[in-house]
Amino acid sequence: MHLILLGAPGAGKGTQAKKIMEKYHIPQISTGEILRQHVSDKTELGKKAKSTMDQGQLVSDGIILEMVADRLTHKDCRQGFILDGFPRTIPQAKGLEHILQNLHIKDLKVIEIHVDQETIIKRLTSRRICSNCGKDYNLNLNPPPPDNICKVCGGKIIQRDDDKEEIIRKRLEIYKNQTKPLIEFYQQKGNFFRVDGEKEIGDIFSDIENIIQ
What we know:
three-stranded antiparallel β-sheet; alpha/beta; Rossmann fold; 49% helix
């Protein structure tokens, strides 16, 4: 199976990707991780990417697509893969189409985990984290102690800047603007599916399984 998983920050995409990986034994592929690996390994593509980043510029679609094309030929992708955070733009989606044609992959499914914006804001603004050990807390589901001292390591529990409402609204607006054209692109192809991300985790996974099967 070959999946693109879409979902706004806080929609639960990471949780569902993990469940898909565990059940179907296919890798979750992030272009950020691929990019870091190429730079770390000092491959030719990594050197090109690093040179671009060192100049404060975004890595080109061409380089990213070459990295994705290489990654999808690895042994662990033989049974399928989950693409996470890629493609982000229509040119990337068209480039991915070309890659999949070359690999004779015809069963791509695009699944969006959809959650109402206000629900996401409520979820993310409730998150807290230990500044020392990274343990997660949640004001509603797993509240931190009244003194905001971590029960695990004694570190200070904080709210990350990324989890403040003003930042979250900006991130959601960027996601919406980026993703709307992609959704329309894949709807026209007939391989786009949407699941209700406000259900229980297990029920969301059941919906995803039904799409996969």
